[in-house]
Design brief:
This protein has about 270 residues and is of the alpha+beta class. It has a single domain, classed as PPM-type phosphatase domain (Phosphatase 2c, domain 1, 4-Layer Sandwich). Helix content is about 25%, strand content about 30%. It is built from seven helices and twelve strands. Helix 2 packs antiparallel against helix 3. The protein is globular.
Length: about 270
């Protein structure tokens, strides 16, 4: 994996720059961020998405977070600012060597942060709530943490041969904010770790505007893969957003995608 560049970071929320009726594609080192605020003629008036991207090429990791809020962007703003304030806690863990303990440590830290009384109190005072999806790539492994209905995909020919694309399942009654899963007796979220495949893997996180576009052009993961494969990530993200703009999608869409090239051996069945 040749990503030996200095660290970089981006934080954004749709209330700052909504990108209604236009899309924007930005490169953050090898990561591509695409934003489209939706179509005014279809009734869109605001963008309540958000994202946070941290990259460290020298230590070979990415931490990417996408959010899709409703009733206001305040909950997305709150979560982004809170994670940024606690960046050192998470990035210090990612500086270590790949191990079970590293990914367990990341999840433990996330749960501790999201269940802190000061954060829960701030959530009670905010307006609205947000879905949250976090993807962390270190070495040949991908960790994910999901509350709500954002989506994470891994595209690779070996996985596509089995129709395997989507990592998480959308949950329509989980949020963080004014209504908060972490206020429950038992908080509800999903998480896991996946081994990437040898060769080039394309990772893609998105809010639900992409899959809920009129005409259902990207409702199936394979249709996203067909748009993305064999072209540069910047071009594929641009093509996804141009297509939903052409189809007059109302909802805002935020896409974050990048390629990870795995050179080391990966798992195969014993008889392969």
């Amino acid at each position: 994996m040749n990503m030996k560049k200095k660290s970089a970071a981006v934080m954004w929320v749709g209330s700052e720059n909504p990108f209604i009726d236009r899309f924007n594609v930005l490169s953050v080192q090898h990561i591509v961020l695409g934003r489209f605020g939706g179509t005014a003629a279809a009734g869109q008036t605001k963008n309540e998405d958000g994202c946070l991207i941290w990259v460290n090429g020298e230590e070979e990791w990415e931490f990417v977070m996408v959010l899709d809020a409703h009733h206001s962007a305040k909950s997305a703003e709150l979560v982004i600012q809170y994670m940024e304030q606690n960046k050192e806690i998470l990035t210090s863990l990612l500086s270590g060597k790949v191990s079970v303990e590293l990914f367990k440590g990341v999840e433990t830290a996330l749960l501790k942060l999201l269940q802190a009384e000061s954060f829960l109190a701030a959530c009670r005072d905010t307006k609205g709530e947000t879905a949250l999806l976090i993807a962390v790539r270190k070495g040949k492994y991908l960790y994910w943490f999901s509350v709500g209905d954002c989506l994470l995909y891994v595209f690779h020919p070996e996985l596509a041969a089995f129709g395997q694309y989507q990592i998480n399942q959308r949950q329509f009654y989980e949020w963080i904010g004014q209504v908060n899963t972490f206020e429950q007796l038992v908080p509800c979220f999903s998480s896991g770790v996946r081994e990437l495949r040898q060769g080039e893997n394309q990772l893609l996180l998105t809010t639900d505007g992409l899959v809920e576009c009129p005409g259902a052009v990207f409702s199936e993961p394979d249709s996203i893969w067909q748009q993305c494969k064999d072209i540069a990530t910047t071009d594929s993200v641009s093509a996804l957003l141009a297509t939903i703009q052409k189809n007059h999608v109302r909802d805002s869409t935020t896409v974050v995608s990048w390629n990870v090239n795995v050179g080391e051996p990966v798992s195969y069945a014993s008889n392969q």
